[in-house]
Amino acid sequence: MTTLQTEQHGAESAENAQHGLKAHSDGDWANRVPVQTRSDRPKSANIADFPEVTGREVNWKYTPVATIKSLISGDLTDGTSALEISEAPGVEVSSVPMDSELVGRGGLPEDQAAANAWGQIATAQRIFLTSEERQTIVVKRTSLSETPTAAHTIIEAAPQSDTVVILENTGSANLTETVEIVVGAGANLKVVSIQEWDENAIHVASHNAVVARDGNLQHIVVSLGGKVVRVNPSIHLDGPGANGEAYGAYFADAGQHLEHQVYIDHNAPNTRSRVAYKGALQGEGAHAVWIGDVLIRRVAAGTDSYEENRNLTLTEGTRADSIPNLEIETGDIAGAGHASTTGRFDEEHIFYLQSRGISEDEARKLVVRGFLFEVIQRIGNEQIEERLQTAIEAELSQSVLA
User: pTM for the whole thing?
Assistant: First the structure.
C-alpha cells in the first residue's frame, strides 16, 4: 500500500470510529462490534485488514460465497492487460504501477475480493480522457479463461472533458476487479458496463468513483450473462454541485445470480443523485440482489437524492432481494427518498394490449421489453442498444410467461 493509501485508510478509520469504543481487558471486544451503517465499513488495500468471509456479513449474506471463494482469498493471475481499447482523440492509455499516486483516488477496497485483487497485481490500466468534444470509446474484454484472475482499471476524466466509456465483457471469466472512476471539475462522463458473459462465468467487480465540483457521472450497468455476477458501484460526490446517476438493467435466468450493491455518498453541498435499477427474473433458482445505500453527510446541505429498484418476476421459483437504505445526517436537504417493488405483470397493461388485438403471450413480452428498455436506452449508442434488445428477445423466447 502506498503512503497516500495508508494515510487515507487511517484518516477514514479515525473518522468512522464508533464513539466511546475502546478495548476492554476481557478480550478483543472492540473488533467484534458489528458494522452498523454502510459508511462504517472498513477500507483497505491490504486483505489482511479484513476478517475471513463467512457469508453472514451484511455485504456477503446474499452472495454464493462458496462459488467465488477463490476470488475472495485465493491466488490470482494478472489480467489487467487483457483489454482492447478503441482509439479516439483525447484518449491516452498507459500502464501505471500499483504503488503510484494515480492509484487509489477513486477509493480503497471495501471488501476482501477487491483487496485480494488489489494486492496481487503489479500494474493498473489507466484511461485518461481529455477531449471537450464528446467522444465514445469501447473497452472490450474477451480473452479471459476460467483461471482466477485480477484486474485494475482507472478511468479518469479531465476537467471539462466529455466522454462515453463502454466496457464490454464477453466470453469466459473467473474475475475479480476494481474499476476506479475519477471525474474532474465540470467534466461529463458516462460509464457503461455490460456483462454478456458465457453461462459459467464468474465476475466480481467494485466500481469506485469520485466526482469533483460540478462534475457529472452517469453510471450504467447491464447484466445479462454469467453464472455469478456481482457489480458494486460506489459513487462519492465530493465537490459542490456534483451529480451522480446510477442505472441498471438485468435479466436473471434459472440458476443465475446477479447482484448489484449501489452506494451514493453525498459529501458536499448542493449535490444530486438518482439511482434506478430494473430487473426481470425467470426460471428455477434465478436470483437477483439489489442493495441501495445513500449517505447524506452533515456537510451536504441542499442534497437532492432518490433511489429505486423494480423487479419483474416472470415465473415461479425466482427470488429477488431488494433493500433500499437512506442515512441522513442533516435536515437541510432538497429531497431524499427511495422505492422498491417486486411483483408479477400488471394485468391492466396486459388487458389493454389484448384489447388492441395482441396475443397474451406477445403482450407479456412487450411489457418486459419496455420495462428494461427504459434503462438500456440511456446508453445512447444505437448499435449496442439494438444488440442488447436482441439478447433480451432471446431470453424471452425461451420463457413461458403465461
Answer: 0.88
Predicted pLDDT at 347: 64
Question: What Å distances lie between residue 134 and 88, 220, 242, 272, 296, CA to CA?
Answer: 10, 17, 19, 22, 31
Residues 282 and 293 in one domain: yes
Q: What is the rounded (10 degree) CA torsion for 339, 57, 180, 303?
A: 40
Q: What is the DSSP string of 11-41?
A: HHHHHHPPTT---BTTB-GGGGSPP-SGGGS
Q: What percent of the chain has pLDDT over 70?
A: 86
pLDDT score, position 365: 76
C-alpha separations of 387 from 142, 193, 195, 245 in Å: 17, 14, 13, 23
**What is the rounded CA–CA span in Å between residue 88 and residue 318?**
43
Instruction: Name the β-bridge partners of 280.
Output: 251, 312
If asked whether residues 231 and 275 sit together in one domain, one would say yes
Q: Locate 182 and state its grid cell.
A: 475519477
Could you tell me if 399 and 282 are in contact, meaning their C-beta atoms sit under 8 angstroms apart? Answer: yes
Do the beta carbons of residue 317 and residue 283 sit within 8 Å?
Answer: yes
Torsion angle of the four alpha carbons 382, 387, 389, 395, in this order, in degrees rounded to the nearest 10: -170
- Over its C-alpha atoms, the chain yields an Rg (Å, rounded) of 21
- Distance, in Å, from the CA atom of 39 to the CA atom of 191, rounded to the nearest integer, reads 24
Residue 229 one-letter amino acid: V
Which of 344, 362, 391 is the endpoint of a domain? 344
CA 100 to chain CA centroid, nearest Å: 24
Say whether both 117 and 152 belong to one domain.
Answer: yes
What local confidence, expressed as pLDDT, does residue 27 receive?
41
Identify the segments of the chain with pLDDT beneath 70. Answer: 1-36, 345-354, 356-357, 360, 362, 399-402
- Res 187: pLDDT: 98
Distance CA(343)–CA(266), nearest Å, equals 31
Round to whole Å and give the CA distance between 294 and 264. 5
